[in-house]
């Protein structure tokens, strides 16, 4: 059975296109509060789970050893646009650990932020791993690796070699944190390689949402992981620019809501959120892998339904819930909007 339509594309008074998918809203006990579509199919969460992957950075003591700031911890949870402040912050994290960008295993690409990419090219510069949208996450992995190397009396450079591989001690700690937070046996899960070269594990939306409910509340996590999750949420609330960047959904929404919302996009139409006031976790997957065009509409609708409580909240979410599309002459030509099925599921 196919998943329901979550987002409609309207043009000329008719549905021109539509995007199917599923979502789960779960509390920290594992109870499904709201759901639509198949929430038990294994999907790859991709970058949506960076906050869970950053837990060992805190619990290991690496964040304290290297005196990482809230801004740097926020970057460890980021899929950023490669703007100068993002690259500089990642470089600063590495410097504190005594290494440089050559230690990063995420690969290099041009900044996804258009102006930053053009300015880098205009200056004659070339992209480095610092511009990779995952450089903050990987800088966190490197800091963890440098701590582990110190504890074993090993050379950090040698120890970090291959840290993206599943059997490396760094990745084993990261995988353990992800498995315990979501109560998922990742040894039995489908496994692929993410865009930044670390393993990505297939898991149901139900379990992803559970992990984020635990991030929201601390309930169901170990005491160390609960403290780490709270610290990361606070860091992101203080420095939301670092999680995404200019004109990005995650940054704009969290800059407004602060600790009331932690949300994080992943590739291929995945979005997750922790909603501390409600004690809920949210996980969304669009079947066609559509991100900005569809999954943001779903997340915005869910936040507008359950989190927004005043005009200012709705003002932030309204243009992201119903997106008015305009052509190159500025003429409105259509809308992206929540489907009738999505509206009905969230009104129940």
From TrEMBL:
**InterPro entries for this protein:** Asparaginase_II (IPR010349)
- Would you say which domain of life the source belongs to? Bacteria
State the name under which the record lists this protein. Asparaginase
- Organism, scientific name: Ideonella margarita
The lineage, from the top, is: Bacteria, Pseudomonadati, Pseudomonadota, Betaproteobacteria, Burkholderiales
């Amino acid at each position: 059975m196919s998943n329901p339509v979550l987002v409609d594309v309207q043009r000329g008074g008719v549905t021109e296109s539509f995007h199917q998918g599923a979502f789960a809203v779960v509390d920290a006990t594992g109870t499904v509060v709201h759901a639509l579509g198949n929430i038990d199919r294994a999907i790859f969460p991709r970058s949506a789970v960076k906050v869970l992957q950053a837990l060992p950075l805190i619990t290991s003591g690496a964040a304290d050893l290297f005196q990482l700031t809230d801004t740097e911890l926020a970057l460890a949870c980021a899929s950023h646009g490669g703007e100068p402040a993002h690259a500089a912050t990642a470089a600063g994290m590495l410097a504190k650990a005594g290494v440089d960008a050559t230690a990063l295993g995420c690969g290099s690409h041009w900044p996804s932020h258009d102006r930053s990419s053009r300015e880098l090219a205009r200056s004659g510069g070339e992209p480095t791993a610092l511009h990779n949208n995952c450089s903050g996450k990987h800088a966190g992995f490197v800091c963890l690796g440098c701590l582990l190397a110190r504890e074993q009396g090993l050379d950090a450079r040698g120890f970090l070699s291959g840290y993206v591989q599943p059997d490396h001690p760094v990745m084993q700690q990261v995988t353990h944190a992800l498995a315990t937070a979501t109560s998922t046996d990742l040894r039995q899960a489908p496994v692929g390689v993410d865009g930044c070269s670390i393993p990505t594990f297939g898991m149901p939306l139900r379990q992803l949402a559970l992990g984020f409910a635990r991030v929201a509340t601390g309930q169901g996590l170990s005491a160390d992981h609960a403290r780490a999750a709270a610290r990361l949420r606070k860091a992101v609330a203080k420095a939301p620019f670092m999680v995404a960047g200019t004109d990005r959904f995650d940054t704009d929404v969290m800059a407004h809501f602060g600790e009331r919302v932690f949300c994080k996009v992943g590739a291929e139409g995945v979005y997750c959120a922790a909603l501390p006031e409600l004690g809920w976790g949210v996980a969304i997957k669009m079947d066609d892998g559509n991100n900005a065009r569809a999954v943001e509409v779903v997340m915005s609708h869910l936040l507008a339904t359950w989190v927004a409580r005043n005009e200012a909240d709705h003002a932030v979410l309204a243009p992201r819930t119903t997106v008015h599309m305009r052509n190159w002459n500025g003429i409105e030509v259509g809308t992206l909007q929540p489907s009738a099925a999505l509206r009905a599921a969230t009104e129940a």
